[in-house]
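Sequence in, structure out. Go.
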Amino acid sequence: MRSNGSNVELSNIKHSLKKQQRQLFVRRLLANKMMVTGGAITIFLILFALLVPLLVPFDPYEMEVTDRLQGPGSEYILGTDNFGRDLLSRVAYGARATMGVGFAVAALSSIIGMIIGLFASYYRALDHLLMRICDGLMSVPAILLAIALMAALGPKTENVIIALSIVFSPYIARVIRSAALVVREETYIEAMRSQGASTARIIWLHILPNTISPLVVQATFVFAEAIIVEAALSFLGAGVPAPDPSWGNILYDGKIVIFEAWWMTVFPGIMIILCILGLNLLGDGLRDLIDPRINNVKKRS
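Output:
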């Protein structure tokens, strides 16, 4: 009976501790103003992109030449472009294209960079080779390297994702390698190695989980950078091919009539700024949440 009572009491204590930990985490999360603000903006834009068919009244490809370059009004909330297409519909569907490319690039470059960083941190011979390749790619400005890759691959949405993943993978690899090198030298890793644990087990089950936090933070910044570079590529005619709407394509169409139809550059520009702002705030907030020491250094300075 005493044993059963002790077990119940111990179970209650564990439950109470878990509840307190959850409450502490929620308080820390809500106290992180940057993360809350950035997360709210990002979630709003994602929902806006996902719920496009329910929000816009017109087809983004439907042209009404007689209504071309109409300003914002009751019928066309954000006005029309130089082909008479509803700008709200194109901006909304452009959110799908641009943010979809950004998310795909962040996911793919995270996977590639994670694999490169983990193997570079564990194998000394591979480290020199892989890191020199990464250094070479990082030495070229992202937009120039992306343009060169798109010139070789051709203007296509899938090629944009491939090109930008190649551009940003070295940045992820560098971050993962740095985090993995620290974990690799931990005592428990040495103990597992001496006990005969396989290399795959050490890398994937013990080193990888300890690099997830910096990976998520860096992926958020890559998401934002990919959106900027994709918009730049589309603006230069080397990104998402017309007539598919993307924020960069809309800006490209608007530059021709910028003095006649200001709304064609202002509204997609605002969307790009909001998206980048939200993702950067989210990334900074995640970094502060994951590593409170950074926040303490900021307060002292």
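Check: The two ends are 57 Å apart (CA to CA). Residues 87-122 form the longest helix (36 residues).
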